[in-house]
Each structure stands twice: as C-alpha cells, then as structure tokens.
C-alpha cells in the first residue's frame, strides 16, 4: 500500500511541476490581486482561470480544472465592461454630446483611455489600466526599417494603417483642445500622437464585439466596441472553437468552449479564421502552423511573368480588375488558390483563345497548353517568393539589437510563409509531373 501511495504522490508532484513548465502562475502579482478585487467589487465571481506567463504565447490565462466542450470559461458582468456608455457617464460626456461634427465611438473610447491613464491614482479604472500593455507590436508601432521587411501586400496595408492612425490624430486635435477646462496641463501634451497610438492599439487589439444602439452624439461609424478586463488576457489559437455572446438574462458577456482543455493548460479563444498577415496587422502577433495562413501574390509580381508584347495584355488586366481577380491571390498549405490559378489562366490565354475568357473565369479547361503554362508560371512565382523570403530571413540574421522584438515578429511571419511556399512548390511539382 505504501508503494502505491508513494507512486501517486510522485505522479501528483510531476503534474504540478508540469503545470509550471507550460506556464508560470502570476496570480500572486500585486497588479493581478488588485485587478481581481476590483472585478469582484463589480460583481465578477472568481472563475477557474489564473493569469500566467507562457513561454510561447507570453501572458495568458491557465485553467485550474479540466474543461469540457460546452463549459462556461468566463462570465464578465456588464459593470466590468468599458463601452461608449461608460465614456458618456464620465466627465467627458457633456463635451462629447456638445461637439460638432460628432466624434466617432472609437475616438470617444480613445479619449477616455488617455484621460484615465493621465488621471493615474485618481482613475476608477486604474487596476485595469495597470495590466494593459505599455506598448504594442501592430504595424503602427513598428519602425520604418521593420515595416520595409514585411511581404509587399502586408507592407502596403501596414503603411495604410500608419497613415490612417496619424490622420485620425490630426482630425481629432480640435476636439482634444475643447477638453482643456477638464485639465490643469495643456491638452496638447496629454493627448499627443503617442498617447492616441497607444489608445487606438489597445482598442483595436483587445475589444470584444458588442453592438450598441446608435446615439446621436456619435458619428455614423458602428458602435461595436467593449473592453473586457481579465477576459482580454485570453490568447488566440486558430485550432479552438468558442461561443461568445452577451447574456441578456445575467447581463454578462459569456464565453463557452467547444474544445477540451486539460488542467493547468493555457485556455485559448479564437478571434476568427484569420491568416497571419491579418493577425499581425490587427493584433501584432503571428500564430505558428496557422491552418488559415496564406502567402499573398501582389498584382505587380503576377504581371511580371507576362510579356508586354502580348497585344491583349491590357484587355486581360482590365477583365481581371473588373471581376476582382487582381486581389487576394494566394498560396496556401494546399498549394496555389483557385483565384490565383484562374488569374494566371486568363493571362496565359493565347491570341486564338482570348474569346474564351468568360469560360476561364468559370473554371473551364481551355487547352492543355493553357493548363501547362498556368502551372509553369505558378511554379516560377512560387520560387521567386521563396527566394525573396529566404533573402529577408538572411537580412534578419544581421538584425539590430534595439529592434530585436519587432524583427522576431517579422521572422516568425516569414518562416511560416516559407513553409507554405515550400509546400506549394512541392504540390506544383507533382501537378506538373502529372500533366507532362
């Protein structure tokens, strides 16, 4: 009997050690103790989730009990949520309702976050603000040198994001100035570009979708944001399924899992079937072995492989543009997408085949020559992107120390791209062998 008990004891100890190999429990940190007390005062009942630090995902939540499909992971009372309603009830409310033209729900939330952060100890939201990231890794935060190493289609979107946030700041400056009576310091130093960038990223990366009725004091942009303290510590995994909804009976935002989760493991939710470019753009991270990931082919790269001598080249490009076949052309884990192959087929049509372009867009086979050329050019584009990706990965090896964290993100994205492209090259090689 003693032996058996000893074995159980060893097993238990090993399991306990295992839990701390996966993630280190951070519940005893003062910031989380204060946050949990603050949430409890607002009606949040302690769940089986504990803040923890994980080696691969960083900060997240671990479960102290095994979870089964259908289990409630978290239920956050309405009082804990930060919405535009919260903003209107604050001292900012009267300034927002008077301001013309009306501010957007997004700017209202940004303004509130900046004002509360500035209030420091006096802020009712301090326990939540203290656990928010001080900085982010969305493109708007990345150095120009880092953005230049992103794949071309993502680089373009990253530049658009940076421009958009800067324009948002410039257009909001007059409204920020109108808040001067509320502050002893100059509003220009409180509501600066750096503060807006932080607030915008906080909302963009952390809000849950929650539809609110349209208010006259806001512009017509949809009011669908809610910041959810503690719940927003849950990290994304493309391999889990969850049900999320606001429960009208309990007046709480609830998440139920459709997956199992072992005791002491990290609990994940899914932000949606996003590829890595979207995840980096919107949330500032990359998911490894992401089944939804793809490598995008820009129209410039696509057209490089078709001679300008083709008399029908411009007509073909116009057709592709009109039928939206110059965007979202990708290589995935299962090879070139149907959209990419269709665009290549149309561009590969011979002079005598051009009248068949409508059939090409419907997926019909036009000729053996057209099929073969399509596969050959797809393989060339794939190899070009492999070489480009490998070149960037070599550059990253000589990275600058001060940009290490940001460059590691680009490296993770490029390594995932390389795996997808190599898989696509293999698929194209097999297809080529089957058709010759």
UniProtKB/TrEMBL annotation:
SET domain boundaries: 47-272
Protein keywords: Coiled coil, Cytoplasm, Inflammatory response, Methyltransferase, Nucleus, S-adenosyl-L-methionine, Transferase
Reactions accelerated catalytically: N(6)-methyl-L-lysyl(4)-[histone H3] + S-adenosyl-L-methionine = N(6),N(6)-dimethyl-L-lysyl(4)-[histone H3] + S-adenosyl-L-homocysteine + H(+); L-lysyl(20)-[histone H4] + S-adenosyl-L-methionine = N(6)-methyl-L-lysyl(20)-[histone H4] + S-adenosyl-L-homocysteine + H(+); N(6)-methyl-L-lysyl(20)-[histone H4] + S-adenosyl-L-methionine = N(6),N(6)-dimethyl-L-lysyl(20)-[histone H4] + S-adenosyl-L-homocysteine + H(+); N(6),N(6)-dimethyl-L-lysyl(20)-[histone H4] + S-adenosyl-L-methionine = N(6),N(6),N(6)-trimethyl-L-lysyl(20)-[histone H4] + S-adenosyl-L-homocysteine + H(+)
Main location: cytoplasm
Any one GO molecular-function label of the UniProt entry: histone H3K4 monomethyltransferase activity
Keyword 4Fe-4S: no
PROSITE patterns (alphabetical): SET
EC number(s) from the headed UniProt entry: 2.1.1.364
Gene Ontology CC: one annotated term: nucleus
Superkingdom assignment: Eukaryota
Family in the record: Belongs to the class V-like SAM-binding methyltransferase superfamily. SETD4 family.
SUPFAM superfamilies referenced in this protein's UniProt entry, alphabetically: SET domain
InterPro entries in the record: Rubisco_LSMT_subst-bd (IPR015353), Rubisco_LSMT_subst-bd_sf (IPR036464), SET_dom (IPR001214), SET_dom_sf (IPR046341), SET_MeTrfase (IPR016852), SETD3_SETD6_MTase (IPR050600), SETD4_SET (IPR044429)
One of the Pfam families matching this protein, by short name: SET
Protein name: SET domain-containing protein 4
GO biological process: inflammatory response; methylation
EC main group: transferase
Annotated localization: Cytoplasm, Cytosol; Nucleus
Coiled coil: 386-416
